[in-house]
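About this split. The held-out portion is used to measure sequence recovery: a designer receives only the structure tokens and must propose an amino acid at every position. Recovery is the fraction of positions where the proposal matches the reference. Here is one held-out target exactly as it appears in the evaluation file.
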């Protein structure tokens, strides 16, 4: 086994989840910084918001909730870090903490974290696709 090839495979399979993890934890940290320790209902609102946004995006994409997509995955190294999706998402979360308060803030930031991160991946991956074609 080639360790470098294995590491490359590991990194490529983890990249989307890593960027999303940074976004969801970062959004939660911004809420904690602004509002302090959340109540149980605020935690459920944050997580529930993220789940609702994920379900909404899945429904928009697949037209139903019980589909197994036959999608081939092609990840390009140029879209490796998802800087736009992660940083853009955190900026939106940060700004929302000044407009919203309490339970509503946790719910809306939870929704927007999942929604915005996934939507911002689209132009980021398009640019990566264009860049990779120009290199060939």
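Reference sequence for scoring:
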């Amino acid at each position: 086994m080639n360790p470098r090839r294995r590491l490359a495979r590991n990194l490529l399979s983890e990249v989307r989840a890593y960027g999303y993890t940074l976004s969801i934890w970062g959004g939660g940290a911004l809420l904690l910084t602004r509002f302090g320790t959340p109540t149980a209902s605020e935690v459920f609102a944050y997580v529930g918001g993220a789940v609702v946004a994920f379900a909404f995006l899945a429904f928009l994409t697949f037209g139903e909730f019980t589909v197994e997509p036959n999608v081939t995955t092609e990840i390009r190294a140029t879209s490796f870090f998802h800087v736009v999706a992660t940083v853009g998402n955190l900026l939106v979360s940060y700004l929302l903490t000044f407009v919203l308060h309490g339970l509503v803030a946790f719910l809306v930031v939870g929704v927007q974290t999942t929604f915005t991160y996934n939507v911002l991946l689209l132009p980021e991956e398009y640019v990566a696709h264009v860049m990779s074609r120009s290199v060939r």
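Annotator remark: Residues 3-68+75-135 form one domain.
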